[in-house]
Design goal:
It contains 17 helices and 14 strands. It has 595 residues and is of the alpha+beta class. Strands 4, 6, 7, 8, 11 and 12 form a six-stranded antiparallel beta sheet that branches. Strand 9 and strand 10 form a beta hairpin. It starts with a helix and ends in a 21-residue tail after the last helix.
Amino acid sequence: MAAPKKGRSASAQSKPGRSLVLILIAIVALTGGMFASGHTTPRLGIDLAGGTSITLTAVNEPGQPNAINKTNMDTAVGIMENRVNGLGVSEAEVQTQGADNIIVNIPKGTDSEQAREQVGTTAKLYFRPVLQREAAIDPAATPSPSASDGSSASPSPSTSASGGDESASPSDSPSATPSSSATSQGRPVTDALKADETPSASASSSASASDSASPSPSASDDAAAADDAALQAQYAALNCADADQRAEAGKGAKPGDSTVTCGQDDGVWSKFLLGPVAVDGTDIDNAEALFDTQSAAGWKVTMDFNSDGATKFADITGQLATQTSPMNEFAIVLDDEVVSHPYVSTTITGGNAEISGNFTQEQAESLSNMLSYGALPLTFKESSVTTVTAALGSEQLHAGLIAGAIGLGLVVLYLVAYYRGLSLIALASLLISAALTYVIMSLLGPAIGFALNLPAVCGAIVAIGITADSFIVYFERVRDEIREGRSLRPAVERGWPRARRTILVSDFVSFLAAAVLFAVTVGKVQGFAFTLGLTTVLDVVVVFFFTKPLLTLLARRKFFANGHKWSGLDPKRLGAQPPLRRSRRPVAPVDPKEA
């Protein structure tokens, strides 16, 4: 039974080259994949590359005390990611922090203001019929003509359905038709996605002394809601030129109730009295920003409704088409603010509509982006916004690299001073570990969105000590065997099983700590935990497939096998005992008489 065991041991010792070849093939394959992917450097986080970090805090709304929960927070994260990615920002990070915070990291090179608007806007979208509207002149802005003077400085944006023949006239009383070319010159949505209004010229015939249009009876409950004395008093008291009043206008209004709110264009604010919600934004299947080459309208937003939305939209446009201005308009209300209020002159069927109004490309894309990805399930407020310049990020990266170099240098000095020739094996193993870490981090950037931030760099620095500790454990086990009188080659093999157990237990504890830290923390601390866990796994791979096989090969060389004083394995320096020998008990002579 002993002979086969010895044969297997000899076979295992004679083929350490297989493990070395295997790990070198893995490095070459991973490096090839890195170059093939085009990502030859790790993706840097905001604190190293520069960018903007936004912290959003969820706010409870009246009547919804339990709305802030994990499901809604995860849904909000998904919508924010879609919105930011819709701007062409493929490397933004959106993640939860705690129970009610969301962290959004936007890399440099991105319009941070537009991105802030995209992630922070709740985007609760409703289509409400307009019952009354009145311009409020902002003292800081240039006054625009009122409804009573018979003219309109900027007609309302128009809405139309695709695929018709009738064309709208952009003259005194602009209106929308089923024609895709039926667009009148309206107001653009501003950078904050706020739209306009100045009353149209046709409103003058029904304007009151306060320049507001009086609601007339309609087939819906809009007239009854408008006649409500409390709502009328609220509408009369609202001053949209006052920022504090604007911030509170429309807050808490239920979809089935009439409401008052504000909208803005070119510094001119208008107040609106709106009927109950006719179409919900969730009824929009898709919205897209397009440039209209067939007319002077320029950029426009096209909308495709689902079946329910198409029916609702046809019903409301049919009702509005019979009304006079401004009650032939429907307001597109985004987060309690009117962003546009197109007018209607005919029923729009087919489930397709468009909004035009001298949009810029950015404004049209921003609006279509929000319409496409839907409303956030929660309301958020900005708790903090931090911008890191590229120069500051570069300084932090430089400082991190210096810290890593200092740590590596100290480890190398210790290894060379204490282990001498064995330090070459340790240094080669550290280089292999560093190469694997670099290549894998470069590949994980595009694969899972991993970004190397400053805490992650700290994790990599800590990993240097963890990796070096594994080498030290193995080297000390081998030296212990030499101290007991064994030669190097048997010492390498006998010391390995005990060192292996110690290394596995130590790395398991480190990996478990990294996993727990990753699970219970968020944000940048997760970068530290992830890097620590990754390098711990790589430590096991390097020790098993590189360090041990390499020491097995070098143990056959005279420099190490004979215990050269610079090899780190000199028996005299280690205080080795004489070689172990079996003592034979002398055999007593046999007495012939006893035999």
